[in-house]
Amino acid sequence: MEPRQPSATKARILEAARALFNEEGVGALSAVDIAAALGISPGHLYYHFRGKPEILAVLADAYQDEVRLVLDAALQACRGDGATLETLWTHVHILVEEAWDARFLHREAGALALRYHDLAARLRRIGAAEREALRTMLASLAEAGAIAGPAEALDGLARVLVTAIAFHALELELEGDPGPPRALIARAAAQVMGLVAAYAVSPPPGLSGTSRRARP
Fold it and tell me: Which residue, 7, 68, 93, 201, is the most exposed by fewest CB within 10 angstroms?
């Protein structure tokens, strides 16, 4: 399924909203603030969206669509000869990037879930889809001999990876990690993959013995 494509004006509103939510937080902003940032009237914004809850829902749907595309590609790639740690690393990196772009959803997940029940359901679906895909990829890696561990441990690893993908870049940001977002995302992805290194039969260069090295 291809991601849903909004109209040009809706796309501008969504892009502005996502940037503001990421920079200033969801709770601190209203639909009027989003309209002001765009230089349009509140009425113009309300013509396209019923308010902040609908904007949040559409952004969450877009994030879910992007994650679904990444997971579909990852599952296709991580088969047969493609079942390697490098394949997993590539797609973990992309998932971290997607999570960073929608970081307001993760940073305020608890508060948003309490206030917007439909949004909480969307986040649960995203997490469940990631867990299932990662579980399948880890099983493929085990079958290929790239990693080794009991099924229960790999199931637990899949669950931990979902949390790490969602929050590790945020943790580095809170720690004041230097560098542009792209470098931060790469470092976060490398450190998330460090969790997998404990199960690796032969970790690839850059995955073992370093927590700060980004993937090329």
Answer: 7
Among residues 144, 184, 149, 150, the alpha carbon closest in space to that of 167 is found at 184
> What percent of the chain is helix, strand and coil (3-state, nearest 5)?
75, 0, 25
Q: How far apart are CA 210 and CA 44, in angstroms?
A: 51
CATH class held by domain 53-197:
mainly alpha
What pLDDT, in 10s, does the model give residues 15-55? 999 999 999 999 889 999 999 999 999 999 999 999 999 99
3-class DSSP state of 66? helix
* 206 φψ region: left (φ > 0), alpha (ψ -120 to 50), beta (else): left
Q: What is the dihedral of CA 171, 173, 174, 177, to 10 degrees?
A: 100
3-state SS of 103-144 is HHHHHCHHHHHHHCHHHHHHHHHHHHHHHHHHHHHHHHHHHH
- The predicted model scores a pTM of 0.88
- What residue spans define the domains of the chain? 53-197
